[in-house]
């Protein structure tokens, strides 16, 4: 009988320990679940405020050119709304109105920040570094080059006596509402630099 009591006592101790471990494990899982629920509720409470702040920031970015103290003519600002908020053709409006010089036109990639602690993101920093390093260019992409063959052609023959200004071909095309293809033909043996 003594041996049966001992075995029964050991079995109860083992079952009691197992029960305590299972209950402890379940209580930890319940605590973790409650923390996740609480975090989700806090995020849900913050979401409208954050959403309002983001939306107000986006609205503020678009109204920035109209605000007092904005450093550029609002007519020179073109909204992009991507990795940079706007491109500023600084001085273009002054040139168009006859009050500025084409040499004064500056292209500015503008990022507007509205938040107290707003910073450039990694991609914006890379863009700024590319601009600072001078890795920028102006290109024209012809969406449908096959159409160029169907446009009326204007051939302008250049000579050392008649010097064509820079951008002459583009100017002629612009004057014809871009419905012509302009080719500048240089005399044999003359380069653009010699004639210009």
List the helices and strands and how they pair.
Blueprint: H1 2-63, E1 77-79, E2 86-90, H2 92-96, E3 106-110, H3 122-132, E4 153-157, H4 168-175, E5 181-185, H5 192-195
Parallel strand pairs: 4-5
Antiparallel strand pairs: 1-2, 2-3
If you had to describe this structure to a student in words, what would you say it looks like?
This protein starts with a helix and ends with a helix. Strand 4, helix 4 (168-175) and strand 5 form a beta-alpha-beta unit. The protein is built from five helices and five strands, in the order αββαβαβαβα. It has three domains: 1-69; 71-132, no CATH class; 145-195, no CATH class. The chain has a three-stranded antiparallel β-sheet with strand order 1-2-3, with no helix packed on it. The chain has a two-stranded parallel ribbon with strand order 4-5. The model is unreliable at 190-196 (pLDDT under 50). It has helices at 2-63, 92-96, 122-132, 168-175, 192-195; strands at 77-79, 86-90, 106-110, 153-157, 181-185. With 196 residues, the chain is α+β, with helices and mostly antiparallel strands. 6% of the residues are buried. The longest helix has 62 residues, at 2-63.
């Amino acid at each position: 009988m003594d041996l049966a009591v001992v075995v029964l006592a050991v079995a109860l101790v083992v079952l009691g320990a197992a029960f305590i471990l299972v209950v402890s494990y379940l209580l930890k899982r319940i605590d973790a679940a409650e923390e996740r629920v609480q975090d989700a509720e806090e995020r849900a409470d913050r979401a409208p405020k954050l959403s309002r702040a983001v939306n107000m920031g986006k609205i503020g970015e678009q109204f920035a050119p109209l605000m007092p103290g904005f450093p550029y003519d609002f007519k020179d600002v073109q909204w992009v709304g991507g990795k940079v908020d706007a491109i500023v053709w600084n001085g273009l409006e002054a040139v168009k109105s006859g009050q500025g010089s084409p040499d004064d036109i500056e292209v500015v990639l503008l990022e507007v920040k509205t938040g107290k602690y707003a910073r450039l993101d990694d991609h914006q920093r890379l863009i700024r570094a590319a601009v600072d390093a001078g890795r920028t260019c102006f290109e024209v992409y012809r969406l449908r080059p096959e159409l160029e063959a169907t446009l009326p052609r204007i051939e302008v023959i250049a000579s050392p006596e008649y010097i064509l200004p820079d951008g002459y071909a583009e100017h002629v095309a612009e004057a014809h509402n871009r419905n012509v293809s302009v080719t500048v033909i240089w005399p044999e043996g003359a380069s653009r630099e010699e004639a210009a």
